[in-house]
Amino acid sequence: MNPRLIAEWEQQDGVLLAWPHEGTDWAYMLDDVRPVFLDIIRQVSRFEQVIVAAPRRAEAELYLKAAGIDLSRISVCEMPTNDTWARDFGPITVEYNGQPVLLDFGFNGWGLKFPANYDNLVTKQLKEQGVFIPNLKTIGLVMEGGSIESDGLGTILTTSTCLLSPNRNPQLDQSEIEQALAALLGAKRVLWLNHGFLAGDDTDSHVDTLARICPGNVIVYVACDDERDEHYGELKLMEQELSAFRAPDGSPYRLIPLPWPKARFSESACRLPVTYANFLVINGAVLVPTYREQEKDALALECIRKAFPGREIVGIDCLPLAEQHGSLHCVTMQLPHGVLL
């Protein structure tokens, strides 16, 4: 059986999130970040189901009801969590002969940086609670969902700094990682980005913060136009790499650069990884992070509209998410058709 990693823009049953609570890194700013999660849940539930992992079901449902969100398309599943980055501990769905199969890769807190003992078990617990229909396969490989992009046709886009990190799978070299991607995800080819980063990023340059594969051989990517910015050189080199890549049919990818947001900093003066590339594709829509920059936000929405014609483009204020070094795509994991009841 040849697996196929399903593209994000294909039909979905729902989206998985994890609820922010006092035991997460959001503890000091829950009042600021809960509205972001509520807005994401509200928008997703207009189009499909939402699964929320939360240590206390009643508490999460109370906030959802208070926000006027219809719970008929939302399931809150009670379980402990370390944090809220569902993209990286949620299931990765592949297709075997037209049927979905869930892969539960190891999650070790982005290369042993943060505790992940609860988050690493979320996918298994959701399966045990009867949330997921397909078979679940536990994979003896550490890999986060944010580290890979798929066109659904056998192309995997990734970054060498993440997938070749010595704290993830130190026993495997690049060739062996490619063999694993072929065997597990049906990768016919792997496009490696060796350049590009965002200051303040904890993930070792997840590709979903830098460049995204879109339908029709399009890649949307982060571009820095400020020569004085610390990112300028590396992102220019990444742009050159993207220009050299070829689509499965041999043609160059159509590249759409995203605007460069102004620099944002945490209270401790650490630069935050603010990126418009961290959007989520759902049925009939694309949810795009915005950062309270009217002109840049509007331009980012227009860029995504060009990449996904015919879909509703919905901006969601994600500046609070940047405080913990992530954004919209990072806190969500799409669940393709056939995954949910």
From TrEMBL:
Residues annotated as transmembrane: none
Alphabetized UniProt keyword annotations: Hydrolase
Keyword Hydrolase attached: yes
Superkingdom: Bacteria
Nucleotidyltransferase in keyword set: no
Coiled-coil region: none
InterPro entries per record: Peptidyl-Arg-deiminase_porph
Record protein name field: Agmatine deiminase family protein
